[in-house]
Write a structure and sequence with these properties.
The protein has 8 helices and no strands. It is mainly alpha-helical. α1 runs antiparallel to α3, α1 runs antiparallel to α5 and α2 runs parallel beside α3.
Amino acid sequence: MGRRNLLLMGAIGMCVCQYIVAITGTVAGTTNLPAQQAAIAFVCIYIFFFASSWGPVAWVVTGELFPLKVRAKCLSMTTATNWLLNFAIAYSTPYLVNEGDGYANLQSKVFFVWGSFCFVCIAFVWFMIYETKGLSLEQVDELYGIVTKAWQSKSFRPQVSFQEVSDKRGMSMSEMAQETERRRSKASIEGTEKV
């Protein structure tokens, strides 16, 4: 399916599940048994969407995202950020859900907050995540150098080979791609003239 499609599917599925749990809990309350069962079912469906998309694919995307020179440091920072935000969410949830002095008493309404973050994930993937399925790390660098809009990344076809990257160290990826395209066009024209 590709990284982009999986992340979009997962974010949409998680967003819908979060809003359904929020609406069910807010409208029906905590005393209605069928509403509780529906909320539990959609929490399980949410887990499915997360486990099949954002859970593993986010690590794949961050592994391909950064240039080779700084990849190790950047991955360390993304891992630390992920763990820090997981801690913050786990620590703040009781304060958001419980009732009493110093608590927000959101109860089921907290799922509206989390569903809204999932909605932001949809926009983030659409505008920021490039499709890197089937590309080598060098080709990913070329993709980021040539394609300016993430939603256009599916149509990207690499122009530069690994050998060309190692031969032309001072050039940018877009310059290498343009030179490769010029050479291919020239060879194609010369081949046509010979026929």
